[in-house]
Specification:
Residues 83-105 are annotated as: Disordered. The chain has 105 residues and is an all-alpha fold. It has helices at residues 2-14, 19-22, 25-29, 41-50, 60-82.
Length: 105
């Protein structure tokens, strides 16, 4: 599985774009306060929202209830912004996959 992931990574990111365009490590190290640590916030949201469903194709009722919950969550977030409240960002659990030698510095 990891071979396919590294092949995709190499072909998509290493050969097509420079590291400075997609890697946020240097900005984080420089103390830049990033609101999103992913390079594609929409993809991140889409994955998180899709993960709220227990089946691939939910019923209309289940979908509507989930959208209503999401709307309430955003109302709460917007209210927090208006009142200058901010929760620290949540990050995924650390995972240390084997890095192929060709990607070592």
């Amino acid at each position: 599985m990891w071979d396919a992931i590294w092949r995709y990574f190499r072909n998509t990111w290493m050969q097509s774009y420079g590291v400075d365009l997609w890697n946020v490590e240097s900005m984080t190290a420089a103390g830049v306060n990033l609101q999103n640590r992913t390079n594609n916030p929409l993809e991140s949201y889409n994955r998180a929202f899709g993960g709220r469903f227990s089946v691939k194709h939910p019923s209309l009722l289940s979908f509507v209830e989930t959208v209503k919950d999401e709307a309430r969550r955003f109302v709460h977030l917007i209210d927090g912004v208006k009142k200058n409240r901010r929760d620290p960002p949540r990050h995924a659990q650390f995972m240390d996959p084997r890095v192929p030698d060709e990607f070592e510095r």
